[in-house]
Amino acid sequence: MAMKTDIEIAREAVKRPIMEIGEKLGIPSEHLLPYGHDKAKVSQAFIRSLEGREDGKLILVTAINPTPAGEGKTTTTVGLGDGLNRIGKKAVICIREASLGPNFGMKGGAAGGGHAQVVPMEEMNLHFTGDFHAITSAHNLLSAMIDNHIYWGNALQIDERRVSWRRVMDMNDRALRDIVVSLGGVSNGFPRQTGFDITVASEVMAILCLSKDLEDLQKRLGDIVVAYTRDKAPIYARDIKADGAMTVLLKDAMQPNLVQTLENNPAFVHGGPFANIAHGCNSVIATKTALKLGDYVVTEAGFGADLGAEKFFDIKCRKAGLKPSAAVIVATVRAMKMNGGVAKADLGAENVAAVRKGCPNLGRHIANVKGFGVPVVVAINHFHSDTEAEIAAVKAYVAEQGAEAILCKHWAEGSAGIEVLARKVVEMAESGSANFAPLYPDEMPLFQKIETIARRIYHADEVIADKAVREQLKTWEAAGYGHLPVCMAKTQYSFTTDPNVRGAPVGHSVPVREVRLSAGAGFIVAICGEIMTMPGLPKVPSAEVIRLNAEGHVEGLF
After folding, report:
1. Which of 9, 165, 382, 445 has its CA 20 to 30 A from that of 229?
2. What sign for the dihedral angle of Cα 71, 73, 78, 83?
3. How does pLDDT run across 70-88, given as a tens digit for each residue?
4. For position 1, what pLDDT does the model report?
């Protein structure tokens, strides 16, 4: 019997009206703003009314470094949320929205998979409730107002060579990485070089995801540094008078989106900053709202724990005052084999030696997450090709690291296949053993923060950075930005900056190519190696197979 695809399973889901899902959480229908029958935004007024309530327990789902074999982190996040509800806990799931670019590129969908999915799958992977379009519009309004200000006399004396604010679109389009604008004579302005980033890499996205309310949002938007004068004095978005209009465009996008899992449990899907460029977590407002409404909140951070969990702890938790109770690291037998040197085509054959050889990648993530004072459990996301001996090898290795690995079959069985993990998470969270602390204090100098992450998380020997990069960091410290956390932009595939180096390498160095100030979001971005802020499409993009079938249903999203 052929296995059904994710989209076929999602299409067969028996969805409950979204008002019923809201009712489960005690959200009155007048505070849900419906987008059709199966999606709704939660009103700001209702969110404000929750302030005095106690918080539930926060559970982070993270993973080993991603491999082309796929780890199933979102699938496990959704499965665990369903599993916690199954064992009688009031659990809410918080995940990110999907970017159109990767959906039409390599990734396919981002709503979980198999019998552990969030629905409506097609809408979530396409336009959803329009949040990303609003972010794109707000970002590009600021771009237009900067060039317009220069055109009409440039009262702020912006140095056109030092406009740092680029444009964005939510698509992978390498042709737009570096462009020249304002060609065509006097009436079109002054030609200058600029470019496009993908919307999920926009500082506006990071700001939306870290803001606690509309007032905070407008303040942060005003704080964005968009350009410099010839004397290198910063020009802010509020100097351009763009912050008010940008907030207006974002007022609905600030409200968290409520949807449901295949098992009709509540899920907030809100925000989606790029995980290898920005901080890769869903919005603070959705997470905090969920913590007021549920006993347990299961959320995820982008890519492997070296990027996602580190940023979740050091940026999101630090800035929002969140304290996680436990962390789950998702691993697969297939990924262990790939880390052990097996080619993707050969993953189906049993190879216990390769599994053992690949386990140190998982071991390092376990040690790193424990280093934040958060108790850890490993979820082995089960694939049909996994053998008993291979699973036993992973479990034995994890036990040696002082943790437990639990086999999870939520992809095939839904919540019934992840009960054991759900019970373990409850046991860890209720033991009160979490003693969370970020990796470095706010007052540590910026370059030292970069070095701390490189040494403690990536196990690098050194950070290599030009004098210009170090001077830039010192300038920002002098300008009062020294207390900001650091957001590392590097490849997700390796602990190093070389995507081809798997396993748990030591003795490498981390080259920092440039640093960028995200004053509104409240972090410094350190760009390492060859990382791109505007991806390109692969040779055969997913877009080639995405279409409408005869019934008018979407096919090809996965």
Report:
1. 445
2. positive
3. 789 999 999 999 999 999 9
4. 53
Q: In the chain, which segments carry CATH 3.40.50.300?
A: 6-129+253-430
Q: Whose structure tokens read 């600029």?
A: 194
What's the whole-number average pLDDT of the chain? 95
Give the contacts of 438 (CB within 8 A, at least 6 positions apart): 313, 314, 317, 318, 372, 485
Catalytic residues: 73, 75, 96, 107, 275, 303, 383, 411
**Where are the CATH 3.10.410.10 domain residues in the chain?**
446-528
Average pLDDT over residues 2-26: 89
- Per-residue pLDDT averaged across 465-478, rounded? 97
Amino acid at 329: I
Best CA proximity match to 479, nearest among 234, 240, 204: 234
DSSP of 288-321, one letter per residue?
A: HHHHHH-SEEEEEBSSSTTTHHHHIIIIIIHHHT
- In terms of DSSP bridges, do strands 257-261 and 266-269 run parallel, antiparallel, or are they unpaired? antiparallel
pLDDT at 3 over 80: no
Q: What residues does CATH 3.30.1510.10 cover in the chain?
A: 136-246
Overall CATH class of domain 136-246 = alpha beta
Question: Can you read off the two tokens belonging to residue 45?
Answer: 């007024």
Residue corresponding to tokens 């040690």:
367
Q: Are 263 and 415 in contact (CB under 8 A)?
A: yes
Per DSSP, helices labelled H in 174-260 are 203-210, 214-223, 243-250
Report the candidate in 300, 375, 411 with the shortest Cα–Cα distance to residue 61.
300
Q: Mean pLDDT across the stretch 274-278?
A: 85
Binned at pLDDT 50, 70 and 90, residue 263 comes out as very high
| Residues comprising the chain, all counted | 558
Query: Which helix (H) or strand (E) segment is 6 a member of?
Result: helix 6-11
Instruction: Give me 331's structure tokens.
Output: 């691993």
Decide if domain 446-528 falls under CATH 3.40.1360.10.
Answer: no
Q: Grade residue 102 by pLDDT with cuts at 50, 70 and 90.
A: confident
The three-point CA angle 263-268-271 to 5° equals 140
Q: In this predicted structure, which of 244-248, 325-329, 496-500 has the lowest mean pLDDT?
A: 496-500
CATH superfamily of 6-129+253-430: P-loop containing nucleotide triphosphate hydrolases (3.40.50.300)
Instruction: Compute the distance between CA of residue 98 and CA of residue 279 in angstroms, rounded to an integer.
Output: 15
Q: Is the pLDDT of residue 107 over 70?
A: no
